[in-house]
Write a structure and sequence with these properties.
Low-confidence stretches of chain B: 131-137
CATH architecture of chain A: 3-Layer(aba) Sandwich
Order of helices and strands of chain B: EHEHEHEHEHEHEEEEEH
CATH superfamily of chain A: NAD(P)-binding Rossmann-like Domain
Low-confidence stretches of chain A: none
Structural class of chain A: alpha/beta
Mean pLDDT of chain A: 90
Order of helices and strands of chain A: EHEEHEHEHEHH
CATH superfamily of the largest domain in chain B: NAD(P)-binding Rossmann-like Domain
Oligomer: heterodimer
Radius of gyration of chain A: 16 Å
Mean pLDDT of chain B: 84
Number of domains of chain A: 1
Shape of chain B: elongated
Shape of chain A: globular
Distance between the termini of chain B: 35 Å
Radius of gyration of chain B: 22 Å
CATH class of the largest domain in chain B: Alpha Beta
Number of helices of chain A: 6
Helix content of chain B: 25-40%
Helix content of chain A: 25-40%
Strand content of chain A: 15-25%
CATH topology of chain A: Rossmann fold
Structural class of chain B: alpha/beta
Number of domains of chain B: 2
Largest interface: A-B, 22 and 20 residues
Chain lengths: ~140, ~220
């Protein structure tokens, strides 16, 4: 990703805050959105971006985060349907050029693909990482 | 006709009444509710197949018979869940009609753009009912009978109503409509042609859906 981009991070839990911190320290302009104001306490002191409290499934909240200016949006809440909806709205309603969604349930990755949304499944990724850490002979046995 | 109803929580009563209505019409009804206690209650009260699960989960939807369904109605209290459930039904299982409830009225347009065939927002529906009330002030009740092939309406006559003071036989009512009762001073009168209509009469009228608007206009005046 080019640095100094305007990025929206939806969901400020462990994954979202980590992403927001990294993106911010890389020099991007970052907006973190979460329904729960307490979630922003996960952000580090180096985070220089903005915080928007609200449900990103509401257009008003996305507008408040100035989504029309965003170069990228990552939807990483713990709710797959919220991620899927926000990602589609970002892509198809606001035309955000780069959109990524987290999918928690690996069996639903196929659904996201059907909707034309690029996804990352932390469950599949960490399972693969565990298997590879166990050694080469285990890697072929992953489902 | 096979219908799948998704919902629960705040919407469980709506689900129940819709299911009952559909069952009475002879439709095959399957309900998916995430709450086991609610699902059990529903299965006791209505002759429908009830599954416990998340209706936006493709596996659950398939189990609910999405491949054979003609209509999926998603009425959960969460907009993202309704959107995804309808999209899964449509794109993965080819369900021809999907109906979603939106809680945030702004999402109505969003849902349509994302391919949901029918979207309704309860805020909007209630809003238009209230607006409609100011126009259709005289009409206090309206309900469809015989599965919508007949409308039963109650109209209260005010002084401006064109029919006030006239005898029933002088009225020019549209064909396919009839005044079946007049409620006057708390008494129900089954009227004859000689009976004259008075201010504050409550008329019970029936009409075919096509004649319904004309009937209202004839009884209540132009604005109706």
């Amino acid at each position: 990703m080019v640095s100094r981009e305007y990025v929206i991070v939806v969901g400020c839990g462990r994954l979202g805050s980590l992403l927001a911190n990294r993106l911010s320290s890389l020099g991007n302009s970052v907006v973190a959105i979460d329904r729960d104001e307490m979630a922003f306490e996960n952000l580090s002191t180096e985070f220089s971006g903005f915080r928007v409290t609200g449900d990103a499934a509401e257009l008003a909240v996305l507008r408040q985060a100035k989504i029309d200016r965003a170069g990228a949006l990552v939807a990483v809440t713990s709710l797959d349907n919220v991620n899927l909806m926000v990602a589609q709205v970002a892509q198809k309603v606001f035309g955000v050029p780069q959109v990524l969604a987290r999918v928690n349930d690996p069996s639903r990755e196929a659904v996201y693909r059907e909707f034309g949304i690029e996804t990352i499944c932390p469950t599949s990724l960490s399972s693969a990482a565990f298997l590879s850490a166990l050694g080469e002979s285990w890697e072929d046995e992953q489902p | 006709m096979n219908v799948i109803l998704l919902g629960g929580g705040e919407t469980v009563e709506t689900i129940y009444f819709l299911a009952r209505l559909f069952v009475r019409r002879g439709y095959g009804v399957t309900i998916v509710d995430p709450d086991p206690a609610e699902a059990q209650m529903l299965s006791r009260r209505v002759k429908a197949t009830v599954l416990v699960g998340d209706g936006s989960d493709p596996v659950v939807l398939e189990e609910a018979g999405a491949r054979q369904a003609d209509l999926v109605l998603s009425l959960t209290p969460q907009d993202p869940d309704n959107l995804v459930a309808c999209q899964v039904a449509q794109k993965l299982y080819g369900v021809p009609r999907t109906l979603a409830l939106v809680n945030d009225p702004e999402n109505e347009e969003v849902f349509r753009r994302l391919g949901i065939t029918e979207v309704f927002s309860s805020t909007q529906v209630i809003g238009s009912l209230i607006e409609g009330r100011t126009v259709y002030d005289e009409i206090t009740q309206l309900f469809p009978a015989d599965e919508g092939r007949l409308y039963v309406t109650e109209v209260v006559l005010d002084g401006d109503a064109p029919v006030t003071g006239k005898a029933l036989q002088e009225l020019e009512l549209p064909g396919g409509s009839l005044i079946v009762a007049i409620i006057r001073d708390g008494h129900v009168v089954v009227p004859g042609g000689q009976d004259r209509l008075q201010v504050a009469d409550r008329l019970i009228a029936i009409a075919h859906p096509e004649q319904h608007e004309d009937l209202l206009r004839a009884l209540a005046g132009e604005e109706a």
